[in-house]
Design a protein that fits this description.
The protein is α/β, with parallel strands linked by helices. The protein is 46% helix and 14% strand. Bound molecules: phosphoenolpyruvate and magnesium ion (MG). The site of magnesium ion has 5 residues, from helix 17.
Length: 552
């Protein structure tokens, strides 16, 4: 036997790749706390020059990369030039410290504050660490820390990737990404998904992989296999070939082998993604996350501003279904104008529809903007509410949408109470859409952003599947459509299970459409139901996955 090892982490997407490891160049050594020989004034000038240069470099990289990478890098450049950070650095320089130490120490303090906040902000700490290291490297006259170039294709292994690195990866060289840190919502994960890079994050032990070690990176299984043998490599080769075939297959509508239609829709967070979604065969939009448009807004957006964005989205899908979700604020997606910062457990607080009903004027403005955008375009507009937990909330949301002249209103099933009472909710609404990310978080009592409980955050868990089955059965009984728009729909085999449990449409990141389309086409409805029952009968998530694989 070889020294084979299997490391596990959180797979992003369903890609598979293999090749030799190349590790990220180490960050510059931490500066020592020494007194400055130059004096505060000259140190101040050095810091100002270094920060300006780093911000300019990040902005230039962003412009070269375009797309959402540009947004991310612009945000990072703004972090570098943040006035409160500058103040904290200046205070240390005035106390006689060196520029290097002042930057390192002041940025470190801000990082710790972000980490304590946790969630989305906590994951931004890595971005700040990257800025700090870039500034220190610049002060020392060293090149910016970054991605290695071993001269051949490689599997990039890093502690965590900064947006600046991820954005500029040469996709002809980087076969896959493996990071020690990072959860499913880290920038590495977000950008890997968007660029369809095979990635596994949160892999403890990956930091010990020596350069040049051959590894198989299997995102679907969330595994890294080191020193694979011939048979394993041949199997990997076969899966890569199958996947390439699926990616190149014609963009037919989603359907099972017996012709049962399962429309495949896109999850989008901005109208900018619409064109690519259409090119990848999206038959409409199953989840438009409107809160992503206003994450940095201090004030509630105006009707006109919203109408413009919604109209741009709807115009890209004439005659097609577009499901727009009302603002989902709170927990990992705080919106300053909708969320309370006082809650100790924001995931269990006034988020989603609860926040909207507490600020009804904001919901009314959004529904007005949607109705106007809908009237001005040819798309079939559906509107749904996030985080619905009761029949009363369902009735309230439906009444408000009708009042605004919106024809089709639905509820997201993301809380166990809604799944368990789906048969009583559905008569009061036009459709349901299951958000498996939150439904898993709330069923398993496992924070979806927390790496340490990521193993529990598994939508294959039979407890989650049983709740989905409840909703599917209620959909059939009431004749109402039941979609799935959480990440679970992007896992090809789980997508088959979801259909077997009664899902009538699936919505996912556009990069996953081809794999899901191919897998659905391999099973009839009867087979999908049998596969779903096999998974449902399991006792653990791992057994459910295994049972489904065996049944398929
Ligand atoms: C979900 O919870 O599954 C979902 C689709 O909503 P979001 O990920 O935006 O919370
Ligand atoms: Mg959700």
């Amino acid at each position: 036997m070889t020294d084979q090892a299997v490391l596990t982490g959180i797979g992003i997407g369903t890609g598979l790749a293999y090749g030799p490891v190349a590790r990220m160049a180490p960050a510059p050594a931490a500066p020592a706390d020494e007194p400055s020989e130059l004096g505060a004034e000259r140190e101040n000038a050095r810091v100002a020059e270094a920060i300006k240069a780093v911000a300019a470099d990040l902005t230039a990289r962003g412009e070269a990369a375009g797309g959402s990478a540009q947004e991310v890098l612009k945000a990072q450049a703004m972090m570098a030039e943040d006035p409160s950070l500058a103040k904290a650095v200046a205070a240390r320089l005035d106390a006689g410290k060196t520029a290097e130490w002042a930057v390192h120490d002041a940025f470190g303090e801000f990082m710790r504050q972000l980490q304590q906040l946790g969630g989305y902000l906590g994951e931004r700490a890595a971005d700040l660490a990257d800025v700090s290291q870039r500034v220190v490297a610049h002060l020392r006259g060293l090149p910016a820390p970054g991605v290695p170039d071993p001269g051949h294709p490689f599997v990039l292994v890093a502690d965590d990737l900064a947006p600046a690195d991820t954005a500029l990866l040469d996709l002809d060289k980087v076969l896959a990404l493996v990071t020690v840190e990072g959860g499913p919502t880290s920038h590495t994960a977000i950008l890997a998904r968007e660029k369809s890079i095979t990635a596994v994050v949160g892999v403890a032990g990956a930091g010990d992989l020596p350069d040049g070690t051959t590894v198989i990176v299997d995102a679907a299984a969330g595994q890294i296999v080191t020193e694979p043998d011939e048979a394993q490599l041949a199997q990997a080769e076969e899966r890569i070939r199958e996947r390439a075939e699926a990616q190149a297959a014609p963009l037919t509508p989603g359907a099972l082998a017996d012709g049962t239609e399962v429309p495949l829709l896109a999850n989008l967070g901005s109208p900018d993604g619409a064109e690519e979604a259409v090119a990848l065969g999206a038959e409409g939009v199953g989840l438009f996350r409107t809160e992503f448009l206003f994450l940095s807004a201090e004030q509630a957006p105006s009707v006109a501003e919203q109408r413009e964005a919604y109209q741009r989205l709807l115009a890209a899908f004439p005659g097609k279904k577009v499901v727009v979700r009302a603002l989902d604020a709170g927990a990992d997606k705080p919106l300053p104008f909708l969320s309370s910062s006082e809650e100790e457990n924001p995931a269990l607080g006034r988020r989603g529809l609860r926040a909207l009903l507490a600020h009804e004027e904001i919901l009314r403005d959004q529904l007005t903007a949607l109705a106007e955008a809908g009237a001005a375009t040819e798309a079939e507009l559906w509107v749904m509410a996030p985080m619905v937990s009761t029949v009363e909330e369902t009735q309230q949301f439906t009444a408000l949408t009708r009042e605004h002249g919106l024809r089709t209103a639905g509820v997201m099933v993301e809380v166990p109470s809604s799944a368990l009472l789906a048969d009583r909710l559905l008569p009061h609404t036009d459709f349901a859409s299951i958000g498996t990310n939150d439904l898993t978080q709330y069923t398993m009592a496992a924070d979806r952003l927390l790496g340490s409980v990521a193993a529990l955050q598994d939508p294959w868990h039979p407890a989650v599947l049983r709740l989905i089955a409840e909703v599917g059965a209620a959909g059939r009984a009431t004749g109402k459509p039941v979609g799935v728009c959480g990440e679970a729909a992007a896992d090809p085999l789980l997508a088959v299970v979801l259909v077997g449990l009664g899902a009538t449409t699936l919505s996912m990141t556009p990069a996953a459409l081809a794999d899901v389309r191919a897998e659905l086409s391999r099973h009839t409805r009867q087979q999908a139901e049998a596969i779903a029952q096999a998974a449902l009968a399991a006792a653990t998530a791992a057994e459910a996955r295994e049972a489904a694989r065996a049944a398929a």
